[in-house]
Amino acid sequence: MTPPPVERPRAVPDEAGRGGPRHVDSVAALARSASPTARSGSTVVVAIDGRSGSGKTELGTAVSAALGCPVVHLDALYPGWDGLQAGVDLLTTHVLEPLGRGERPAYPRWDWVRDRPGRTVGVDAGDLLVVEGCGALVPPAAAFAAVRVWLDAPDDLRKERALSRDGDTYAPHWDRWAAQEDAVYAAARPMDSADLVLATGQP
User: How sure is the predictor about 76, in pLDDT bands with cuts at 50, 70 and 90?
Assistant: First the structure.
């Protein structure tokens, strides 16, 4: 017998297209009512995931401001253009696992100019922490997320956004990065376990 399809909660598309007040309010309200997972100690971790250019950074920054809590951007952890899964592992070992042990997290920020690890960045997480980036809802990091948010946007719009933001730096690596997204998302299917699936295309 074929199991019924998973019904995913959805919020209405935001009138601003991405990171607007409806989306921020939806995520913040869910975070305020959530409890920490068994692995995240006393901190509610809000994880915002989605493919490149879907609006994660803008939404994550706005949600962290609304909640008055820190935000960790996975872009700061990926060790280069082939490092999507490695960035998720670094997030887990340097931020989420120490958080669960009651320790102050700190992670090595990747120096994209020199293509090597840079300075260490501390994270002063309290009751809430926002984590955003490709892979935020991929194992092993996914087990720490109390609030799971997936962002959807049309492929052509995502690419336009990403390349307008990062320009010539990102353009040669778009397909290379997209192939990693294909692999990790096909295996983990984070969109199926999301608490909120938000459309960030034009309404």
Answer: very high
